[in-house]
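Appendix B, record 7
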Amino acid sequence: MTSPDTKSIFISLKWKLLIAVMVMLTILGGILGGFTFRQLINQQSYQLASQQNQLAQNLQSSISLTVDQSLLAAQQISLLVNDGSNDDVKFDVGNYQEMLDKRWPDIQLYWELNTIHLMSLSGEVLAHAGNRVDVEDRQWFESSSVSIEPHWRIVCHRECVIQVLVPNLLQGEPHLLFLESGLTDILARFRVNGTFELAVLGPKIVHPVGRNYWARELYSISNKRMSLPRLNKIADNFSWEQIASKGGIYEVNGEYSAIWIFPLAEGANSPAILVINNISDWQAILNEFQESMLGTLLFALVLSGCLVILVAWAPVVSLSRHANLLPLLAEHDFETLKKLSPKSSSLIVDEVDLINTATNQLAERLQNLELEVDEYTSELKRLAMLDTLTGLPNKAMLMHELKKTIACVGRIHDQVALMYLDLDEFKRINDTLGHTQGDELLKIVAVRLNNSVRAMDTVFRQGGDEFLILLRGIRSDQDVRKVIHKIFASLQQPVVLGHHKLIVTTSIGVAYCKSMNVRAEELIKYADLAMYQAKDAGRSNYRVFTEEMLHKANNRLMIEQDIGAAIAEKQLSLFLQPIVALPDSKLKGFEALIRWFHPELGLIMPGDFIPDIEHSEAIIRVGNYVLEEAGAMLSRLRKQGWEDLYMAVNLSAKHYMDPGLIPLVQHILSKYDLPPESLLLEVTEESVIEQVDLALSAMKSLKRLGVRIAIDDFGTGYSSLSYLKQLPFDVLKIDRCFTAGVLEGSADTHIVTTVIELAHNLGRTVVAEGIETPQQCEFLADAECELAQGYLFSKPLEEDKVFGILTQIERDRVWPIEAAPQLGKLGS
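Structure tokens (predicted):
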């Protein structure tokens, strides 16, 4: 048996099971106990809140009852005054005072009054009995508005009393009756429970003297012997604001009490009743509940532990036996394992017995698998580094061999070369003949490549139709060229696939390695760049990697990365070159030409960045930007009164065949309210002939919108006349390479006149580009060319300069000819 790691701590399964059960029971018991305890706490809080609300209601009702009793007392005292008097006799204050002097002991005893005063509405005391009113009482009289309802307040002087100001009619004349009584009845009715202890505290004193509580004087307290020490502790431990804002339960000297404050009047500084409710009995019940829950949980844990040990002992012992047997599987000692495995003969089986059966079955299967693995291992070793289709070394083998060969440069090999091959038009062959025939072609090519290289060279298959050849021991470039010529010659032999006979060509990129510091990945990258250069040069070509290729690739990557920021930051601007009529030079439109004002590199002409992005999605974003800006410029021209002008915009091949072009053109025409014929979209002849069918479909879609189409750079492509009549274009633009030689009487002269005549026969308009001299302009006018543009009229101009010239020629609309035009191809 293999022992556990010495750093590990072995814990038996039965103990783990016991711990798990105890943890689960503890958690469950804790959750249930906590829930029950929370319910008790909530019940306690609910009862205390109910008691607090009941006390508040009792206080209000007690005060209201006292005020009502004062109103009743006032009415009955009025009856005493009016008793036996004649209604016709005017009310006499002396009689009222005489009645009070005579009956005051009875009135005081019956109504429990401390003071009674009869006052006029102005506050003058007409009659009184008991304590006299002081200055504060008079201020209260004056501040109280006269109404039919009684006014009351509770104040504390020598004691806390309730004062009631009652309106009273004596023989039809309104008076005020001031009654003052103690709080005994209010406190008696307020204290609904004998366990409540009450303390009446006066308002807060600014400069307290002597014993006070929270700067308040104590006027009365229930059960002074027990309550006063508790009140002292509460005042020492808790602030008045804390009790007033939160209330609730507080612990003082091990006893729990609920403390509430009930103000006796409105305002922050008013007398108040402090209620102390001893809830120590309730808290004792909660503590007793916690102790009983803890005991129950402990008993459950002990009982469950015993049950777990009793039930789990036998299975754990059996599992321990299996733990000693399982390492035999790792040692491949299957026979010993089968002999030592316990044989189960019981009618009742459990999971441990199932483990025993599964262990024996696993041993049997592993024994059989070992035999199969031994058979396949040798085959896998052979296939690990080979391409399954062609049998050539694969990419993994290429990296291994390339690293090993580069490490030998300078010691065994003077230099090595890596050739990157990509079959021309293989995708078309695969799509036409099917993948089966395509795979067969790859096998044939692999054989021919192997037969074309030297014995020291190795052919690899990268994947798809890409092959790499590692040439070792290269002494000169002639060694590489010989291998390339042999490859081209071997591929020139036709390949028969079914009923088809094909001639396959390839494009080859070559990268030399003369230093062992070059990484394998870099060498593959260099050969790949050279191969793409060979692809661009046409079929059956090869190119050797140069640093200029890498620079161009990096520059193309930089442009693709920066073009997004250029569009977002408006670094791209449109310059306008006028297009005029021949021979009168009247302005007919403009061609929009893009310029990139790079924040670091300065002005970048389109020829320096458009070719780098014309095969990527960036060219579509640039084209969309140019269309949007051209539409806006054309709209501004039309608002200035130049409604008969059109705007020509160049489109790349990728852009005008993009599905999103049609919706964009519709949007621009609608957004700027442009007539469709005012927009001329130019596509080059070369881009059209590459994919005639797709180009024809795209041009028809554009024509349905009403926009016009021009074939740009006409004559620079090939086979132009064979499809010219099929394309739905409106304008034919003769490239400047032909117009430059029209005065020399050479072939250019005949080409230009023939193209003009051909376009007219097809009903098309002709624009001659690159006009730089008046003589060229005269010749083209005689040849009936309708329109011209070039440096004779103007180089591409910024929009504000164009509008400046338009202001000058607004009357005759004749574009001025430059006095000394700059020559050269600067207008693109």
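Remarks on this record: Residues 13-82 form the longest helix (70 residues). The chain has four domains: 79-281, 334-342+351-381, 386-545, 573-809.
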